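Handoff note, outgoing to incoming analyst
You'll be picking up this chain. Sequence as last confirmed:
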Amino acid sequence: MIKPLLTAIIFILFFISTSQAQDNYEIQVYGSSTVEKGQTMVELHSNFTFDGSKTTVNGVLPTNHVFHETIEITHGWTSCFETGFYIFNSVGNDGRTAYVGSHLRPRVAAPESWHWPVGVSLSTEFGFQKAAFAGSTFDLEIRPIVDKKWNKLYVSFNPTLGKSFAGEDSDIGFVFEPNLKASYDVSNVVALGFEYYGATGRFFHYSPIQQQEHAVYLATDLNFGENWEFNAGYGVGLTQSGDSGIIKIILGRRFK
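Most recent structure output, in case you need it:
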């Protein structure tokens, strides 16, 4: 079991050394499974940035000492297809609260009956954000998801592609944004591990390292039962172009 864990850590270090990061509204590495047919998952993503941008740049408000609150509602339509809907909100350090935008996210997974050795699904997410909170005001995300559980060790890799269609960076094509998670069950309730989020710039034409974004989180998942989801973590940025010192909490509940 130690050998797979070391392998996962090597993967993390590899992507850090070779690879703009996920916006601080939904900081999550996806697993491959979808919400069960007829069930609805309601999640609250809460994030706070201790060390973010401190000035308005190109009309985008600063992120320093800002709370981001995202409501995610996901419904399972079949055993391998779901649709998620996001409501992004921002709470500034001056008490300013604002609706930021919304995304829609359909996702399809490989059925268990295929008996693949790894879990596989494909998520597509698209929607808009207000220009004051994001350089891109309409974008698309294509997120393949591959994961695997070896006894107590879990690894998930999301080699994500993002494309802006309006606003900043709308003319540069797809951006590579790899996400990686490795966790280990230290008990029946607690899993500990790492999460990595990166953005390398245009796919196959990567930006200089100082313009890329990379962040690593120390994270935990708590198992309160099959109807609950809890994830928390603290992340630091590894390059100067991204935010750092971010704490995140995800709390979710499934309903039939």
